[in-house]
Specification:
heterodimer; A: 597 residues; alpha/beta; Ubiquitin-like (UB roll); Alpha-Beta Plaits; Rossmann fold; 3 domains; 5-stranded mixed sheet; 4-stranded parallel sheet; 18 helices; 17 strands; B: 388 residues; de novo design (two linked rop proteins); 16 helices
């Protein structure tokens, strides 16, 4: 059904837009910016903050531009006297219940309310201060997320994120009137409820009410401590987004500059999580083939399929809470971050002759759940906590600014070796579908001796931003040792964002789905849309980041994990072969059921 | 004594001349369009307070194309000082049911719901029995309509129609953005007629007595009669059915205690009328409309306390989602406290009046939009009492 055009005037300028367009979007087309707070391109319309109110000729009430569709002949005024007075009142009201201690706020300089206050030059408050002292007590129980109710403006973006995008509903609106607030089940601390630590709420909080637990000072202390050897690893998705926080346009890759900045910050070695992403493919790909063999050849009924990826710690905790009966489906592989920590404090420490206890492993991650993951008791296989501190992409950008580094002007630098070499297959871990594509590039070749049958190795069917994707690849002309896979259609599925993951899991549980291998990333878009990435986020921004990731992959000399020479070397010198005893000790883990409330 | 105030007996009339079911049978023989025309002609406006023409509401819903439509009876009577729906449901529930069935017939709905505030659950036992009997009577007559019952949980905001739908759907009772209006997308996103208890009774009575007779009562803008809940400083508090359009001074003469200082017309969200304006105030849509609440205050009452109570009520009962209402109510309450204590100058009351102007046009629903009514009418008429 084609939509017809609606004619209206905004500030006396005529425009025709499709039926159903909101006043907000119509105004955007005419380059009139209407301020918003509760509105977010990823979420349903709320219309509750009211800062977007506009005057519609003939109407007694102002209309919320974000929630009001245009109608024929409408005449809208976005900056009339009525609108201005009301909007200023609304900003003043929000400030009156907001802890406006901006200079001490973690979000100082990146706060939508602060921007509005600055635009309207709100001086001394007209209204009375309503901030309750008890609301200033922050919830710091979570290793990933800090919640500060005194900064909350009740826009409910976090609640809609947690419900609509993630299907988790750890955050909800409770009470009404002056008592209304955003809280958890029974008002429990965040570390005691079903929170996956994904941090998507942080990405969409307009103020400083939800922020990451930051470890910047701890990392500076380690760097300054002469007795410590500090190595840093960088996740695939950081290199395509870090620039956004440092004056570089969205979608521009900054790998070389990021490495240069990390060296200037004083890290002893700058290494790459991409190396262990390649390692993950070796282990996980082999695990998949082994499971398939046990199922198809040995008819082993204890084998659990579909196998599911385990790179995303938000997803893992989700599964532990919501689908504990499917824990055996998860690959036993640790995430690349944790493989890195375990390898760094054993193999690498030996190589460079540093004692593991003197080594501090810092991760730069697009993720807040990684902060939780590194503290899991299972993640101490080196004998120490394998990864000591996790910083988000945002925290790294803060350190770079603190150090006075002019990021834009940095000369590009290269990762240190070893543990710095990687393939294009590792880079695409940062996008939804990437782990699947990387695994297929390697597994297909192991089985058939040939490259995957896709132009330039780009497996298009597993790419893209659709919430749930699936694909089927026919395996033909296999090597003799893999004859049981001859003619098999390998069915795979990919989901990103936990609401989509839940849908897919329900299908798996009911037996409706018939997949061999499933990739899940906890965040919308995969790691490139992670809870630790620069703010803001939107479908458009994530699309640009994904393009950057695939560009980076296409430009890599090595495109397949098993061809990474450092990977070949670590198996030769240290691990033996995938799924070896040593691999199991260091690179694999287990999961535990968690409560559901 | 010349007196326009006239007590009438329509709603609670229970003569044997005509039972509600007979009205139903008689009316269902007419065409839906004919019924709508009659209802529009009667001039009946919604009795919940907002006063939307009932016939038009039915017509809009009838004009929507949808397999499923609903009729909802709003019995979430929460306005302070209003208790007439309770009485109606207790004494003449069948008249409410019949209004719902006729509405369902007219708009094409097969399900009706009564959403009653939880505080009235003591009525449930008797009411559910009567509802059961009534549903059976419908089945016996092959009328494809069933009435269900839902109980609210005690939030004032759930009387706001879209918040009521949210509550019925099992969600937090928060008002929705409009448009779309209920006639297009109401309960479960389907076209819905939502009428106040009293409105539905009057539809039944109009079909019984005829629009012409109903129109004889009231004025041009306020046809018919209305049930009033009279409370406060009156020796005869209670429920009265009165003709609309009476001057307030006559009401006070009838119900006041001889020392009436002000009347709060329309509950906490209504207007406060001081003695000096009794003569010029008409109770009806051309003057000050009311959902039924008439609170009478005599000279022993502090209007500061009255306003303070109202503002406390709204501060607590705002759903909290929209800024103008959630924060605005708190600022008004704390604001008059600050003025009373001398922490803010009397002129701060004028800043607050400006704030109510913003609340009136920028709040998401009727709650926040109407808080300015009591605030301005009390501050303007009793400014000294607020300050000193």
């Amino acid at each position: 059904m084609s939509k017809y055009l609606v004619n209206l005037k905004i500030n006396n300028m005529p425009i025709a837009v499709e039926e159903g367009t909101t006043i907000l979007d119509a105004a955007k087309k005419l380059n009139f910016r209407i301020p918003t707070l509760c509105h977010h391109p990823d979420l349903t319309v709320a219309g509750n903050c009211r800062v977007c109110v506009v005057e519609v000729k003939g109407a007694k009430l102002l209309a919320a531009a974000c929630a009001t569709p245009v109608s024929e002949g409408m005449e809208v005024f976005t900056n009339s006297e009525k609108v201005r007075i009301a909007r200023k009142h609304i900003v003043e009201l929000l400030l009156s219940e907001h802890n406006s201690d901006c200079t001490k706020c973690y979000k100082n300089g990146n706060c939508e309310l602060q921007e509005l206050a600055s635009e309207y030059r709100i001086g001394d408050h007209v209204f009375l201060d309503l901030v309750r002292p008890e609301s200033k007590i922050q919830d710091i129980s979570s290793p990933s997320i800090v919640k500060d109710d005194s900064k909350c403006i009740r826009c409910q973006r976090c609640v809609r994120t947690c419900t609509e995008l993630q299907g988790v509903s750890a955050l909800a609106v409770v009470h009404k009137g002056d008592q209304q607030k955003i809280s958890t089940f029974l008002n429990k601390p965040l570390n005691e409820v079903v929170c996956t630590n994904c941090g998507q709420c942080i990405n969409r909080c307009p103020t400083g009410a939800l922020t990451e637990r930051n470890y910047i000072e701890e990392v500076w202390n380690a760097i300054y401590d002469p007795s410590k050897f500090v190595v840093v690893q960088t996740a695939p998705a950081t290199r395509i987004a870090l620039g956004e926080d440092l004056g570089i346009p969205v979608g521009e890759r900054v790998t070389g500059k990021m490495v240069a900045a990390l060296k200037k910050l004083g890290f002893n070695k700058v290494l790459d999580t991409d190396f262990t992403a390649d390692l993950t493919i070796m282990e996980e790909g082999t695990e998949l083939l082994t499971r398939l063999k046990r199922a198809l050849v040995d008819k082993d009924e204890t084998v659990v399929l579909p196998m599911m990826t385990s790179c995303s710690p938000g997803w893992i905790k989700f599964q532990e809470h919501i689908f504990p009966e499917l824990l055996d489906n998860l690959s036993t592989c640790k995430s690349p971050q944790q493989m890195f920590g375990a390898v760094a404090k054993t193999y690498y420490a030996d190589k460079i002759n540093i004692k593991a206890q003197d080594m501090v492993v810092v991760s730069i991650m697009p993720c807040t759940a990684k902060k939780f993951e590194c503290e899991r008791p299972e993640m101490r296989d080196s004998g120490y906590q394998d990864v000591d501190y996790v910083l988000t992409t945002r925290e790294l950008s803060m350190m770079i600014r603190q150090a006075g580094i002019d990021f834009c002007k940095l000369e590009e630098d290269h990762y240190d070796s070893i543990l710095g070499e990687s393939s294009g297959a590792a880079v695409i871990f940062g996008a939804t579908g990437g782990v699947m594509e990387a695994a297929l590039r390697t597994a297909y070749e192991i089985v058939t001796g040939r490259e995957v049958p896709f132009t330039n190795l780009n497996i298009q069917p597993v790419r893209g931003m659709e919430g749930i994707k699936d694909a089927s690849i026919k395996i033909k002309n296999v090597k003799p040792e893999w004859s049981f896979l001859e003619g098999v259609d390998l069915n795979v599925a990919i989901a990103h964002g936990l609401a989509n993951a839940r849908q897919l899991m329900e299908k798996v549980k009911s037996g409706e789905a018939n997949y061999h291998f499933i990739e899940i990333m906890g965040c919308p878009g995969g790691c490139l849309g992670g809870g630790g990435q620069p703010i803001p986020t939107s479908p458009e921004i994530r699309k640009k980041r994904a393009e950057a990731i695939y560009e980076e992959d296409a430009g890599m000399p090595i495109r397949k994990s098993h061809e990474n020479p450092e990977i070949v070397e670590i198996y030769k010198q240290f691990l033996g072969e995938p799924l070896s005893h040593k691999s199991h000790d260091l690179l694999h883990t287990h999961y535990k059921p968690r409560h559901r409330y | 004594m010349e007196k326009n105030l006239k007590k009438v007996d329509i709603i609670f009339e229970t003569s044997d001349r005509c039972t509600p079911l007979e009205v139903l049978e008689k009316t269902l023989k007419r065409s839906p369009d004919d019924i709508i025309l009659d209802l529009i002609d009667s001039g009946l406006k919604g009795r919940g307070g907002a006063g939307f023409p009932t016939g038009l509401k039915w017509k809009f819903t009838r004009n929507e194309t949808s397999d499923v439509k609903y009729v909802i009876c709003n019995a979430d009577e929460g306005e302070p000082g209003t208790f007439k729906d309770r009485e109606i449901l207790d004494r003449v529930p069948e008249k409410v049911f019949v209004g719902m069935v006729i509405c369902g017939y007219v708009v094409g709905a097969k399900e009706g719901y009564i959403y009653m505030r939880g505080e009235y659950n003591f009525l449930l036992k008797g009411l559910l029995k009567k509802l059961d009997d009534f549903n059976q009577a419908l089945r016996k007559r092959n009328i494809d309509f069933t009435i269900y019952f839902k109980s609210g949980s005690g939030a004032y905001i759930c009387g706001e129609e879209s918040a009521l739908f949210e509550s019925m759907e099992g969600k937090r009772g928060e008002p929705r953005n409009k448009p779309p209006y209920p006639t297009v997308a109401g309960y479960n996103g389907k076209p819905t007629v939502i009428n106040n208890v009293e409105t539905l009774v009057y539809t039944t009575m109009i079909f019984h007595m005829g629009a012409e007779k109903f129109k004889e009562l009231g004025t041009k803008d306020s046809r018919g009669s209305k049930v009033f809940s009279v409370s406060g400083d009156t020796p005869i508090a209670g429920i009265y059915e009165l003709e609309l359009g009476m001057p307030l001074h006559e009401f006070v003469n009838e119900f006041g205690d001889g020392d009436t200082k002000a009347v709060q017309v329309g509950g906490a969200s209504g207007h406060c009328v001081p003695r000096k304006k009794f003569n010029d105030t008409i109770i009806g849509f051309e003057g000050i409309p009311t959902g039924g609440s008439m609170m009478i205050f005599n000279s022993s009452r502090s209007m500061y306390n009255v306003l303070h109570d109202y503002l406390e009520f709204f501060t607590e009962e705002s759903c909290g989602q929209c800024t103008p209402c959630r924060v605005g109510c708190q600022q008004l309450l704390k604001g008059i406290e600050a003025v009373k204590r001398g922490e803010r100058p009397p002129s701060y009351l004028d800043d607050l009046k400006k704030l109510t102007a913003t609340m009136k046009i920028a709040a998401k629903c009727g709650l926040g939009q109407s808080v300015g009514n009591p605030f301005n009418s009390i501050v303007d008429n009793f400014r000294e009492e607020i300050i000193y």
